[in-house]
Write the structure tokens for this entry.
Amino acid sequence: MSSGYILKYVLEGAPITLEIAAGAWVLGTVLGLVLALARQPGGVLGFGAASVITILRCVPPLVLLYVVFFGLAAEGITIPAVPAAATALGLVEASFTAEYFRAGFLTVQSGQFDAARSLGLSRSSTFRLVVVPQAFIFAIPPLLNSFVALLKLATLASAVGAPEVLYRGQLVYEQSGQITTVVIVIILIYLLVTIPLTRAISVLERKMQRSMR
Amino acid sequence: MLVEVGTMVGWAQTLWTGFVVTIELSAICSATTVLLASLIAVARIHPRPLVRGLADAYADVARSIPLLALLLFVYYGLGRVAQSYGISAFWLAVFAITVSEAAYLSEVYRAALQAVPAGQQEAAASLGLPWWRMVWLVIVPQAIAPSLPTTVNAVVGIVKGSSLASLIAISEATLAATNLVSETFQPMGVYLTLTLMYLVILIPLSLAGKALEFRFGAIRPADKSGRTRRRSLISVTPEV
């Protein structure tokens, strides 16, 4: 089997990998923002949000995926492998995203908060109109980094049969027996995608820090 | 979905044998990861560009390869050869997890080494200490405390990552659960029991990491300009 065929076969999994990572990223970002906001005021709600974050941080993503995919299916809720993987990874991601937003909130100076309050904005509109938009900007580089991490985590979906890059690689290995070619192809795909992305993000991060000063 | 407590306790007892392997695997991997990450971090601040370049390249490449991919590559690619030398899949998993996690941790350790004030290095140099003794006696001891929180977080990441070893037929906790599911046909109950057991182990560890972070501050890797930000709230544990 030619290495061109193997490359083509594996690359056909790329859209699925992208789909899983993108789905998980959207879910993780939204849920992370919600958790970070809920955590703000403290009290019962804040404690609840902090607990959810801690729990999500301590569950292995593969186990969470099994709960979402096999567990729910046995209870009559059948979710196909791709959305199941996006859900499980999104939940895991939310625990990290929540921290990025919290760091963002802390970076938005408290003076801004006081200024908005003194203009007569309510607590919730201060958050909605002043704090969250600025915190979001601070959170952009880590959020982009977490997308790169999700591209790698998406390989876990192979465990439930989603035809992403690694799963396609396993299939073509079984057909061809050419382990070396398959390994090189998959490593090259990941290197060529993640290293430039990571570099670009760190450039962006540096530019942002300079403009903030 | 509702499972009696008695059944769950029974399952937990079955899963515990798997957890013994999980703990063994994680403990060994934690030790080897800290060791390899330290060596790589020191190599990354080495005065020779070649040593620095090789260590940087390792960290860049190893961080780009998904852990599960690395595990499968090592298992399918080296499994047969390793077996002929009497090396079991368990040690292949140790190898893959170490190579992957050490790349992340070396980034943090390097930042900790670079955060030691330059004056310390100059003072050591003026005493005539050779480079490696300067690193060992002056730089490393001051970098240990600030590295502790991330090290604990990395251990949490290693325990979570060890669940992937179930996919190369190592009978740790997650594989024990999968086997139990094929006997009981109750995936929800079994996997939730498994989740609870992971939480019991990992939440105290994770809280300890948080406490250390509060005490020492978290380290972020220096950006390319070489600046290190110590007191950031974002920790950089790999998102495994």
DSSP finds eight helices and no strands in chain B.
